[in-house]
């Protein structure tokens, strides 16, 4: 018999009860009396989103390979259930055992985007774990964070006992061994464990550091409180991706997850060096997996899951050098097995169009150009190695091949952007539409209009990118830029073939504050959570008025974090992390962007000396 | 080879909705390695159909699913391959070869259920004789049982009496069924101990006139008067079609 933590009457009155019952195929069940360490892995968002995340699946596989560890999963209860749990005092539980999180040794929280920060507090609150690390007892689980947002953990540092900086494959075993041995020898106390863990490379224990501030609010000094606690925390890099664990038997949800398919990670990191892109910097060096390994995993995962679709994952799949061979294999294997292949956004060229025409229904599918900026000047500033000729040639071939739908992704608010750059966005879309009607002038044979969708997000500067010093805009300025695009688009001759969508400006500003915030921000997040904010990434639950109130009440000026161009001499909250890319490289890239709009070649063309050669793997060593 | 599978649904999977259950079986069929017959078209999927969707929260020991494979295999082998892919709560009860070309959904005529109670207020007493007398007066000795059926578009009056093939009060829910299919009954406050009554019913399940046990129970025990007193639990026992003689037989036997 399998129990559920929630009773029948609750499961019958909430949305999607299948999110909370566990019991999924391929989930790992163990006897809790036979393991030494229980780890609850949390993705602080709704089940369907969290279950789609590859990183947790990799670590779930790796942790559960250990006989002495049982790793389980937990996601944010949707507001309907969260309210019931609060009202009836039901503790947050893990899916596999349905046991309360508070019974676990570790609560690991993955930090994939800043807008989930209030959900972290919800998870702690519902688990009955004190929100602040300093208030926790020896019986509380160790709360550890990881993922891209851990590269500036300061705004949420007080809520965590430790952070893991970098790729989990490297040091988790060492951390678990330390915990288990201290427990077994009786030397365990929260304090003693945290102190020892701080010596493991990549582990950052915020309570062992302190910060002082200058009169203007910038950081004066960030320093370890004890001798032996490292001044810098080194990012961990997996230098043997082929040999590392991969989830060959991923858990299959009942409820349809966002990523309802086999996900094959072909490569980690990116050779491109786009200056706005944090992932392109913090996952360096670019490391490709071997074709044989990928073939093996693809077949195993399809057979172990029964998914009817497979997708390739990486930051830039077109740069995976063995893509033609892999696609030949997959097309053959998948047509035999009646499996669909979905392609991530590939660079549009004759190869990708040929592949897409083989695996997609051309009439229904749309092409995506991640152009990021409308003008060539702007694209050079961000080091997006894409010319208008590349785009036009890709579009020409696509239209001749039968495609009619094109999606364009752009960012607004990039450094040095002028209104001319903004107007270049609809102008580029117009050029593409014009090209379509030029190429296919005959109304009868072309089969309808083309549809060019323009989508813009507002740029958010992220730590460890060359733009980490850049200023952001006010929400009003963002919306003004969006309306410039909108007005210009409506004036274009082919405006009937164009459409435009833009993101919310208020969430962008908040994301920007969290991304580059310091320890002072924690108070604001806690205030907002206590006053009802949660699921901020979801429009229907985002309450900007509560956030405004939170900043006001905590006496914190949000503009300090967003509307200020930082000087390169300023101590940044994340400076204590060694992310691999050197400060010198980032500063140089910032100069090249804002000074002469100079392009920096990609890692395969020429090494730009970013500092990640130290890891002795990947593209720096020719593979 | 056309195949009919009889399976159960209980435990946590009773909260899995019909569409999700279909996706669950599509994946399970693919994992089983059986030589499945696929639909044609751009995104082929296994040919698969279910006799009747089961509401979320209802347990069952008589669900049916039809699918086909490209060449004949022993039914035991098929059952073993499917069973190896099931989650807790979905047990493959039988696998039979289907000779009737009609799908289970088209053949479906009736379904049988056990309905049990969950006390909400202490004012409700589970008196078997009182329940019996309601059933006697409203069903067994009545000439009609008219209810208003609301659909999205309209309201219409329906006489439920011709849709009830059989109904009876049980002194108690069979203990072996309870322990297997509703093992968490105590935690969930369902009244399934020695002296608690349950209702057995066999009702019409044709797609045009599917009588849901909830609707019948609401019409017998006026919903508005009793909603604060008790709620019900439902367990589906089996589904039926008619044989050549016009008699109801389980879908699994007819195949």
TrEMBL record, chain A:
Gene3D superfamilies found in the cross-reference section: tm_1862 like domain
Entry GO MF terms: catalytic activity; iron-sulfur cluster binding
Name by which UniProt lists this protein: TIGR03960 family B12-binding radical SAM protein
Domain of life of the organism encoding this protein: Bacteria
UniProt-listed PANTHER family: RADICAL SAM DOMAIN PROTEIN, SLL1084 PROTEIN
InterPro entries membership: CHP03960_rSAM (IPR023862), Elp3/MiaA/NifB-like_rSAM (IPR006638), Radical_SAM_N2 (IPR045784), rSAM (IPR007197), rSAM_horseshoe (IPR023404), rSAM_sf (IPR058240)
Ranges of residues in domain Radical SAM core: 256-491
NCBIfam families: rSAM_fuse_unch (TIGR03960)
CDD domains noted in UniProt: Radical_SAM (cd01335)
Pfam families: Radical_SAM, Radical_SAM_N2
Automatic annotation (TrEMBL), chain B:
Origin superkingdom: Bacteria
Protein known as: DUF2344 domain-containing protein
InterPro entries tied to this protein: DUF2344
Record-annotated DUF2344 domain positions: 3-213
